[in-house]
Design a protein that fits this description.
The complex is a heterodimer of chains A (330) and B (380).
Chain A (H helix, E strand, L loop, with lengths): L13 H15 L11 E3 L4 E8 L5 E2 L2 E2 H14 L3 E13 L4 H18 L2 E10 L7 E11 L14 E4 L5 H9 L17 H9 L6 E4 L4 H13 L2 E5 L7 H10 L12 E5 L4 H9 L6 E7 L6 E4 L5 E3 L13
Parallel strand pairs in A: 5-6, 10-13
Antiparallel strand pairs in A: 1-2, 2-7, 3-4, 5-7, 8-11, 8-12, 9-11, 10-12, 13-14
Chain B lengths: L14 H15 L6 E7 H9 L10 E8 L7 H11 L4 E6 L12 H6 L3 E5 L4 H8 L4 E8 L4 H13 L5 E7 L2 H10 L14 E5 H7 L6 H4 L5 E4 L3 H16 L5 E3 L11 H10 E9 L3 E10 L8 H4 L17 H5 L23 H4 L4 H8 L4
Parallel strand pairs in B: 1-2, 1-7, 3-4, 3-5, 5-6, 7-8, 8-9
Antiparallel strand pairs in B: 10-11
The chains are: A alpha+beta (330), B alpha/beta (380).
Chain lengths: 330, 380
């Protein structure tokens, strides 16, 4: 562990796991926490409970803003445990001098997203700090959901199962990167930020037996696949040419030297089901996004690793992203 | 029809085309008298070769040697320490490119300097320094310039603007290096600097983006004087496979030539305007120390004497450390860069030396050979 915390410790990849493991788990350790699922399952499997903080810059971006993100993020973590989002808290830390009109705009978009989830904010807190103490506005939301489909877990994957994705990957990360200062890109790309509960509800209603579910936020699809491979002690093989990626996302990745599977998403999730259920699951997913697809299979070729199969018959590891995402030089 | 970005890579990653080249190469390789070792000079090529799993498609008598062409990898620690010291100065903004900020020096990386309060920024184009300098008139902006011939013109344009617009708060720390000099050193060093005795390099895959600027002409000596064929190749998998096929054909037809695979952009002469601009502002340095290799004559650039007032190495001379810092004794990057060993033969590869805590030059940037092996694995 480094003496000081760097940006890389918040990347959702290797350094991030190190930080959580060596400081937080060490002291907070308990049976529920160490499962490290998207949300904790409490009260004998009745409730899911989670929290998330939002510090995105810029606050407003194509297809969303920090408010929408703050509701989607927490509600999606609940939905990923098969829970219906019910009650949320909302804490905001505001930098002195922030525009009250913009604040209201953010809160309005939170309200809209709450309605989609059928959830309400029941408690909150506000703090205003001197200029420079935070970057404009930070939001934390905590949520409780009622579990409708129990026993979803990252540790249940077995050989032969299928891995699906609900839509194209990398939009959110690419949109934020293009909007950041220092990289002058004009694009019509939109974030994928969306509440996922309706899509999960549709899977449950269609009686699809769900093995594992996880939204591919920080660290992207690559991080989720690696987490599953480790948690279930299996290998996941992905067909590279099946991964749906928009041309614009590909373009940004090419220019900056990123891989779309490492970019963050806010409305993209992976689903593991038995082979026999894959077609029915795909049909349900395609009711929302036409480009939902089957990415690959669980095997035992190289346990705890994710392998990408190319269209020309070669194989390579798809590793956990590490470090800060930085453009390459030449 | 307008050209879209995807036209620039989609077809060059076509599975059928790659498979077709693999077939041609395998067929031709049967006629080779001896196995051949091809050095891909550039880290970008190493990255392509590993990312797309190309060695898995090649017969066993064609072998890659991963060259020193990664500007971040070859930066000696003492120069990273320069960047760190400069970044920690009061009222200073240190600007550099991409993953330079991750590389650890003896006090830490620029990323760590940033977490201690230093203002360190990475830019995609050096021209953004102009905006940063304008927005921060009471601060010094120091551009820590790195890269091969490819990024040198951008530094030259920036200094050209700084002089023409009489901007007082931009300084330069120049670490530009050149490719042909280090290639020569790797096969024909007769001095104490780099041990090229018994090197195994039979041919070179030349980096095309360098030649977009400098032309293919910079490699002319290799086939004629040093008897090593060179194919200047692009960076997509189809480009690399075609480049390899061209090299194999030279061997079986008993030719030794300079050829260009990447004809869609590279010419023999290169970009003459860029070359002129570089020559206006830069001189060669007698020796540049390459991490993992040692001193290489004439392989680095510095600002010309008449522009010394813009040179951070001169302006901050009194505070910059000068002692050379060697890599860990167990590190075998020097052997890897000369083709004497593969990353997996190193005893600390993947254990003490990882991308998150790199010890040697080949692990520090994603384009280094060890980092590429670590990341993509060796599934042959």
């Amino acid at each position: 562990m480094n003496k000081t915390i760097t940006i890389a410790h918040g990347n959702g990849g290797q350094e991030n796991s190190e930080l959580i493991g060596q400081i937080f788990y060490k002291h907070f350790q308990n049976d529920i926490l160490v499962k490290s699922e998207d949300a904790a399952v409490i009260e004998n499997g009745k409730l899911a409970f989670t929290t998330d903080s939002f510090t995105v810059s810029p606050l407003f971006f194509n297809g969303g803003d920090i408010g929408k993100l703050a509701i989607c993020g927490t509600c999606n973590d609940l939905a990923m445990m098969g829970a219906k989002p019910k009650y949320l808290t909302c804490s905001v830390i505001i930098e002195e001098g922030f525009s009250s009109r913009e604040l209201e705009k953010v809160v309005r978009s939170m309200k809209k997203e709450l309605q989609i989830n059928g959830a309400i904010v029941v408690s909150g807190d506000t703090k205003v700090v001197p200029k420079g103490s935070v970057d404009k506005l930070f939001i934390n939301t905590t949520g409780i959901g009622e579990i409708e489909y129990p026993n979803i877990s990252a540790s249940n994957l077995k050989e032969g199962m299928s891995i699906l994705v609900n839509r194209d990957v990398g939009c959110h990360g690419a949109t934020i990167f293009a909007a950041r200062e220092g990289i002058d890109l004009t694009t019509t790309l939109k974030t994928d930020c969306a509440s996922l509960y309706p899509e999960i509800k549709a899977l449950i209603d269609a009686n699809i037996p769900i093995i594992a579910l996880r939204d591919a936020t920080r660290g992207g699809v690559a991080a989720v696949l690696n987490e599953w491979a480790k948690a279930s002690d299996i290998c996941i093989e992905i067909e590279e040419d099946k991964i749906p990626i928009q041309d614009e996302v590909k373009g940004i990745c090419e220019m900056l030297g990123f891989e779309a599977v490492n970019l963050a998403n806010e409305g993209t999730f992976l689903l593991a089901v038995d082979k026999k259920d894959e077609d029915r699951a795909l049909e349900v997913l395609r009711n929302t996004h036409q480009n939902a697809t089957i990415l690959g299979t669980v095997t035992n070729l190289h346990n705890q690793k994710v392998i990408l199969n190319s269209a020309w018959g070669t194989k390579r590891f798809l590793d956990l992203p590490s470090g800060e995402l930085l453009p390459r030089i030449c | 029809m307008p050209i879209e970005l995807k036209n620039l890579y989609d077809d060059f990653r076509d599975g059928d085309t790659i498979k077709a080249y693999a077939k041609i190469i395998s067929k031709d390789a049967k006629k080779l008298k001896n196995p051949i070792n091809i050095m891909e000079v550039c880290g970008g090529h190493t990255h392509t070769i590993m990312k797309f799993g190309l060695p898995q498609l090649l017969p066993s008598n064609i072998n890659f040697i991963h060259g020193p062409g990664c500007p971040v990898c070859i930066m000696p620690k003492e120069r990273i320490d320069h960047a760190y010291v400069l970044a920690m100065q009061e009222d200073t903004i240190l600007v550099t490119l991409g993953d330079m900020i991750k590389v650890p020096g003896s006090n830490g990386s620029l990323q760590q300097a940033r977490s201690k309060g230093a203002d360190v920024r990475f830019v995609y184009s050096p021209m953004e320094c102009l905006k940063i300098a304008e927005e921060n008139p009471d601060k010094k902006v120091i551009y820590f310039a790195i890269g091969f011939e490819t990024t040198t013109p951008m530094s030259a344009v920036l200094i050209d603007q700084v002089i023409k617009k009489d901007i007082k708060n931009i300084l330069f720390h120049i670490n530009h290096v050149t490719v042909p000099e280090v290639m020569k050193e790797l096969i024909d060093s007769r001095d104490i600097h780099v041990d090229s005795y018994n090197n195994k390099i039979d041919a070179f895959l030349g980096p095309s983006h360098v030649s977009v600027i400098s032309g293919a002409k910079i490699y002319q000596d290799f086939p004629t004087i040093y008897k090593r064929p060179v194919v200047v190749s692009g960076f997509e998998p189809v480009d690399v496979m075609q480049g390899i096929s061209m090299i194999v054909k030279q061997f079986i037809e008993d030719r030794c030539e300079l050829e260009i695979q990447y004809k869609r952009v590279v010419t023999y002469e290169g970009n003459l305007n860029s070359q002129k601009l570089i020559n206006r502002y830069f001189d060669k340095v007698n020796l540049f120390r390459w991490r993992g290799l040692g001193n290489v004559p004439d392989s680095g650039l510095k600002l010309k004497d008449q522009f010394l007032q813009y040179d951070a190495e001169v302006v901050y001379k009194d505070i910059l450390p000068i002692a050379e810092i060697e890599d860990h004794k167990l590190c075998i990057c020097g052997d890897i860069l000369r083709g004497m060993a593969k990353p997996t033969e190193c005893t600390i590869f993947g254990t003490a030396c990882k991308p998150t805590s790199p010890i040697g030059s080949c692990m520090v940037s994603s384009e280094g050979a060890c980092a590429a092996y670590y990341k993509y694995g060796n599934l042959i």
